[in-house]
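For the sake of clarity, the format in which proteins appear in this thesis is described at this point. The fold follows as a row of integers, each naming the local backbone shape at the matching residue. One such record is shown here in full, so that the layout can be seen directly:
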Amino acid sequence: MILLYDKKKISSASDRLIEPTLHEYYPRSRLTVRTLANAASSAQTWREILAFHGDLASDDYVRYVHNYYRECHQQYGASWFYFDIVNVLYAAAKLIRPKHYLEVGIRRGRTVCAVARAYPDVCIHGFDLWVENYAGMDNPGEKFVRDELAAHRHRGLAEFVSGDSKETVPRYLREHPNLLFDLITVDGDHTESGARIDLENTLPRLAPGGV
């Protein structure tokens, strides 16, 4: 920002400068892709995610990715440049401190807990069918996820809506016409048509500067 000074005549004999006024030549700060990439792949982020996994209720998949993260981090150190849903969401939540987070596809809550771990005051709006044995993995349900959030010291609202997101998300958004989300994850129906519908339903509610 540049400070502009306006002169104001207060008498016929003298002038003085009034208080500087702010003129915005550029938009307010926005998170750039490069900034998010740097934060998500930083050695500090990976150390924090490994600690986060240590507090997460584990299953075969969590153990697998935890070992993968640890081995790569140990071998490549700060040079390791890698992205997946967890480190990107974790870094985004730390950087933008979202007030409202929408997630389609909760399952055991690893990603929603990553967001809560990064910014415990976030309000969570989650949608899931809670299908048992989803993709060959257990899907223990809403109470399990709430217990996980509590273990990661989440302080904000946590609201979960059960059912098909193609129906529940539009209905929820109609019921909350002014609600915008600073952070959105679509990780439910993995078919091309299903994912497209979820994206088309949610992205119009992404807040300016959101991710």
